[in-house]
Amino acid sequence: MASVKEQQLAYRAAIVLLVIGVLCYAAFPARTPELPARVMLKNMAGKVLFDHKSHASVQEYGLACIDCHHTSEADESSPEACRDCHKSENLETDGTLVIKRQEAFHQQCETCHKDYDIGPSREDERCSWCHLL
């Protein structure tokens, strides 16, 4: 059996290591990524898990922010979300029709994927390729 002195030494060492761990965790928090890795889009047709990181990464698709966030300025650090302009219904703004969010996503995503021949080849797979039903 361990002596009382050995137990006290072990407890003190554990407490010191715990305090050091908490201090290090508090002093050096994990950095928040500049871009979201993934975005979950919730809708009536089923959730869509959009891999934002792979679309924006130079090693993957290398799209610039303005390629999708079409109204953003080139030097803008945080472009507006689609929902800020595209609502759940068509709107008329300054004589310009702003299409609803669902249509905007379908046009943007499907057009790009067709241009680069990425996605399902059969029409019956079209919805389930993005929407998690």
Properties at a glance:
single chain; 133 residues; alpha+beta; Cytochrome C3; 2 domains; 3-stranded antiparallel beta sheet; two-stranded antiparallel sheet; 39% helix
Structure, described:
The chain is of the alpha+beta class and 133 residues long. It folds into two domains: 30 residues; 94 residues, Cytochrome C3 (Alpha-Beta Complex). The strands form two sheets. The chain has a three-stranded antiparallel β-sheet, with no helix packed on it. The chain has a two-stranded antiparallel sheet with strand order 3-4. The radius of gyration is 25 Å and the shape is elongated. The mean pLDDT is 82.
Strand content: 5-15%
What is the straight-line distance between the termini? 60 Å
CATH class category label of the largest domain: Alpha Beta
Range of helix content? 25-40%
Q: Measured on Cα atoms, how large is the radius of gyration?
A: 25 Å
Output the helix-strand order.
Answer: HEEHHHEEHE
Count the E strands: 5
Total of domains = 2
Uncertain segments: none
Task: Show the helix and strand layout.
Blueprint: H1 4-27, E1 39-41, E2 47-50, H2 52-56, H3 65-68, H4 82-85, E3 91-93, E4 96-98, H5 101-115, E5 131-132
Antiparallel strand pairs: 1-2, 2-5, 3-4
Quick summary:
This protein has 133 residues and is α+β, with helices and mostly antiparallel strands. It is built from 5 helices and 5 strands, in the order αββαααββαβ.
